[in-house]
Design brief:
This protein is an alpha+beta fold. It has seven helices and 24 strands. It folds into two domains: 3-52 and 268-419, Sandwich (Immunoglobulin-like); 60-259, Sulfite Oxidase, Chain A, domain 2 (Alpha-Beta Complex). Helices cover 12% and strands 29% of the residues.
């Protein structure tokens, strides 16, 4: 078997729909076929680039870390972690009412003082009948690349809230995690109670998360228990959870308010490149690969555009009149090829959005990440700029419909390219 055949067998889940057709002028275009790509028709340049793509689920040790704290809680020595409740054996969660005039009325608050705080064993007992799993890309509001993509498992937060038997005066949920017992280090977030009790637009529930990619959360990932809000940026998914406060106060109390951030902005749809040659020979096809974050508005297209440097259209800051060309969104991985250190290399059973065989029910999946690829025609010598963008399911081209920086990354990326 040839090396190229071996490559295709190994990466069939990514490359099976790519064909190369050459016009009489030698310009290369990428099309989608209905059958597996034949070895002699696949562009070798593109095959190599696709073969170097990372897996769609992130290995646990490859997640980026933007944890806060001095010291960062996950760096505490083991004995200190046990003392402050950052182990599964010592973790406890208090679910209480606010203490001021905005207090919600609860019949059965959960407190350490009266021995009713929720512990990890209690959470696992609830998980026996109420656990949920879903895929989500974790992204910081103020960073231009995802931190990692995984399958998050936990118990819907509403299952815990209902156990406190709220009666009235409940409009919002405040929550925070361990912060070195220093009020100035507290990192907190909040949500309307309606989002916790009900899941709009077919979203997964807000969860108390204890597993990532089928394995118990490490301290680095916010373990033993963290919040995960499916459609939100990372600052809503508080790590090292210790307190949930139910309140009648109508306004948010998120720490991110202090940084002029839009604390109600859900995940955006946008694209970025992963590989493009910095230099390419004259008239040689240009292989490009990248990823797209699929936000709340979904994804219909990824497009690329290469223009001579400095020739961008005037008076068109979002490049709406540019000669964009469609890239191809790669198919989802086949079962066993998602990565992420999954036990037995399988999508956990009953993961929302996946069928029993571990295949996604729709593609691209909202709140996740996809790969894309394009092979652009060769160019004359010169300096060029390559850009990529998404078009969401409503027809909005990146950076629209929410171009503002403080509501999450949306800027169109540009990459320099030299042809000589």
């Amino acid at each position: 078997m040839s090396a190229l055949h071996e490559f295709l067998n190994e990466h069939q889940h990514l490359t099976r729909r790519f064909f190369l057709s050459l016009s009489t002028l030698g310009a290369a275009t990428l099309t989608v076929g209905s059958q597996a790509a034949r070895a002699n028709e696949l562009a070798p340049e593109l095959a190599e680039a696709i073969g170097n793509l990372e897996t769609l689920l992130t290995p646990l040790d490859k997640f980026r870390d933007v944890s806060r704290g001095k010291p960062v809680p996950h760096s505490l020595p083991p004995e200190k972690k046990a003392e402050v409740g950052l182990t599964r054996e010592t973790w406890k969660l208090e679910v209480i009412s606010d203490t001021d005039k905005s207090a919600a009325r609860l019949r059965k608050p959960m407190t350490k003082a009266d021995g009713t705080a929720l512990d990890f064993n209690g959470l696992m007992q609830i998980a026996e009948t109420h656990s949920v799993r879903f895929a989500k890309v974790m992204t910081c509001l103020n960073i231009g690349c995802p931190l990692g993509t995984g399958i998050w498992e936990g118990v819907p937060l509403r299952e815990i809230i209902w156990r406190t038997q709220p009666v009235e005066n409940l409009r919002r949920v405040f929550y925070y995690g361990y912060h070195n017992d220093e009020p100035g280090q507290m990192f907190r977030s909040s949500m309307p109670i309606g989002r916790v009790l009900e899941d709009p637009y077919d979203l997964p529930p807000v969860i108390l998360c204890y597993k990532l990619n089928g394995q118990f959360l490490s301290p680095e990932r916010g373990g033993p228990v963290r919040v995960v809000v499916p459609e939100a940026y990372g600052f809503k998914s508080i790590k090292w959870l210790s307190h949930v406060v139910l309140t009648n106060f109508a306004a948010a109390n998120d720490t991110y308010i202090d940084g002029n951030n839009d604390i109600d902005s859900p995940l955006k749809t946008w694209a970025a490149t992963l590989s493009v040659p910095k230099e390419v020979a004259v008239n040689q096809p240009i292989p490009v690969t990248g990823y797209a974050q699929v936000g709340i508005s979904g994804l219909s297209k990824v497009q690329v555009w290469i223009c001579p440097k400095g020739t961008e259209p005037e008076g068109d800051p979002n490049f709406l009149t540019a000669a964009w060309a469609d890239a191809t969104i790669l198919d989802p991985p086949k079962p066993g090829h998602w990565g992420g250190d999954l036990p037995d290399n399988k999508i956990p059973s009953n993961t929302q959005g996946f069928d029993a065989d571990g295949r996604p029910k729709t593609w691209p999946m909202r709140l996740g990440k996809v790969h894309w690829a394009a092979l652009r025609p060769g160019l004359p010598a010169g300096e060029y700029t390559l850009r990529s963008r998404t078009v969401d399911e409503k027809g909005h081209a990146q950076p629209m419909p929410r171009p503002f920086k403080k509501s999450g990354h949306a800027a169109i990326e540009q990459v320099n390219l030299v042809v000589k």
